[in-house]
Amino acid sequence: MLAALANYGSQSLDPIHALLTDPNSVIGLGDGGAHYGMICDSSYPTFVLQHWTRERRGERLSLEAAVKALSADTAEAVGLGDRGVLTVGRKADLNVIDYDAVRLEQPRVLYDLPAGGRRITQGAAGYEALIVSGEVVSRAGAPTGALPGRLVRGPRAAA
């Protein structure tokens, strides 16, 4: 049996609002690894935008609070002081979003890992462009071929 959704014991996401708004919570972190065949954490930023800022009945997050939590707060928590906000001297990686079109697609199972290993993936709509280091790397979900990113190791001080 697969139980892919945690924190849903009351059959409501209402208790999660307190966690999302707690100053000690960091909602912008995710991981990938051996559990790829069980869950797909990579969809949570889109879920935050779609559900928690736009579609939810009940207490919501403001769009500004959600974007800050997914960018600046996360960067600060992991020691990436050179990113997370749009200001002179900082690294300005951007998502250009059609907010009204942001939505998750149905999860899919792929068998494309080494030795035919399985993983769950979930696409998203509403992302018009992804800009990394000033170069457009994706338009409407399609890669442009530009690869300006680089591996980041360790903390980065603010500019």
Please describe what this structure looks like.
This protein is an alpha+beta fold and 159 residues long. The protein has helices at 14-21, 44-55, 63-70, 72-77, and strands at 94-97, 103-113, 117-125, 127-132, 135-139, 142-143. A 4-stranded antiparallel sheet has the order 1-4-5-6, with no helix packed on it. Strands 2-3 form a two-stranded antiparallel sheet. A hairpin with a 3-residue loop joins strand 2 (103-113) and strand 3. The longest helix has 12 residues, at 44-55. The radius of gyration is 17 Å and the shape is globular. The mean pLDDT is 87.
Short synopsis of the structure:
21% of the residues lie in helices and 23% in strands. The longest helix has 12 residues. The model has no long low-confidence stretch (mean pLDDT 87).
The secondary-structure class comes to alpha+beta
Strand coverage percent: 15-25%
Report low-confidence residues grouped into runs of 5 or more.
none
- Multimeric organization: single chain
Largest sheet: 4 strands, antiparallel
Mean pLDDT: 87
Strand order of the largest sheet: 1-4-5-6
Distance between the first and last residues' Cα? 49 Å
Encode the helix/strand succession as letters: HHHHEEEEEE
DSSP helix count? 4
The outline comes out as globular
How many individual β-strands?
Answer: 6
Instruction: Give the radius of gyration.
Output: 17 Å
Helix content: 10-25%
